Amino acid sequence: MPYAAPWPPADVLRSPRGLAVAVTALLGVAAAVNLFSAAISGYAFSLMKSLTADPAGVGDDALDRSDTLTAIAGSLQLLILLATAVVFIIWFHRVRVNGEIMRPDAFSQTRGWAIGGWFIPLGNLFLPYRTAKEIWTASTQFAPDGSFREVSAAPVNAWWAVWVLSALSDRVFSTMYGRAQTPGALRDASAVGMVTDLITVVAAVLAIVFVRKLTAMQTTKAEQGPYAAV
Length: 230
Prior knowledge:
Structural class: mainly alpha
Radius of gyration: 23 Å
Shape: elongated
Mean pLDDT: 92
Protein name: DUF4328 domain-containing protein
Domain DUF4328: 58-215
Pfam family, one: DUF4328
Distance between the termini: 56 Å
Order of helices and strands: HHHHHH
Number of strands: 0
Keywords: Membrane, Transmembrane, Transmembrane helix
Number of domains: 1
Organism: Streptomyces flavotricini
Strand content: under 5%
């Protein structure tokens, strides 16, 4: 008799709370790292401004210190970005699967897009947002009478708008910094870098709000059922 592979187990709801705690902690660290980077960019801006005004008044030790601190900040940003991205995407996929169990008709794409959408050039500026909005809808309880009950999607919209602004600003900064050959150009790049870091801090805070709110919505729906209490 030929071997018959067992059927895969049916989907079950899995709590996103543990992952949400991890994501929240990493986003908090990311915010702190970007605040540090903003301070370093501010220091570099001040140094390049002084160098432009009086080249003889800035010593090599100050320039070396600025380069070292900039390299440290960049390395820390890369490390926390990678760690946060991995855990965030795992959480995002978890709530996407839960959302499909709660309300299969809420989604226009397969669950794989909760991961793949982040890695498509240009598409990653809107595909994850569409998935996030659909998860939000699927995680919302119906009214007690069974009618649709809308919950403000402001946490989703605010997080995504600032995140996209941060990503675009970072590209501008990277281009300016890579092409900077003079103290004036480095001063301007440092100013853009400082603004970019501060925008990223705001994006991280808004991401924490989004993660916590969506996790709470799914937890409530899993515990109370699809209909909100009267």
